[in-house]
């Protein structure tokens, strides 16, 4: 059942992601108009209108700001940290395989912040969770790239633990708790992108974790960016990222994988 849900989520998102859906609607509308069907103007206007709105409005910030503000980072860092859980999602697996060097994407702060925390808390256990979210068999696991990167950055192998089978946030939480067996009274930090933190915290709590949010990789600030400062491809990519989180929150809540529709501190 888990495999069916995983494949279905991948296929559905490929079609329903805002950019792809807008292009499909635009093409359907234009084709209908070319064939003389007047109703074609509506899907054409919807698709092209959405792309125009992304180009001229800060929709990317509007969709991400509530997510990023939901779990603020603690004002005071814990004096003692027993463990640090880092979620996958920052690794470019295919590029790493092709070039043989650890390649990171825009969520790279997940990896760098973990190293900084590990240096400030030499008592902490550093745990990375992430396999491969690719539908293609035999893809490189993110955990393998994380191991190589952190070893190169000087983290001792004995301090690190890797979970390499999970394909989504739900499996991250369940598999990692089974692997590390968190003891009562221990202080653990969860490191992931700020916009991904609400869903992550809801899932980890539901799985039985007692963990503190430590968000990174913010994409919004106190003020909205000046008009047209950010390029259209970046705006669209960030809008899709935020939209995916909102869809994921609703889907995980309906499946009983999170403790709330919109988890809060």
From TrEMBL:
Keywords: Membrane, Transmembrane, Transmembrane helix. Coiled coil: none annotated. CDD domains: YdcF-like. Signal peptide: none annotated. Residues 82-248 form the DUF218 domain. Pfam families: DUF218 (PF02698). The chain crosses the membrane at residues 12-36, 42-63. This is DUF218 domain-containing protein. It comes from Paracraurococcus ruber.
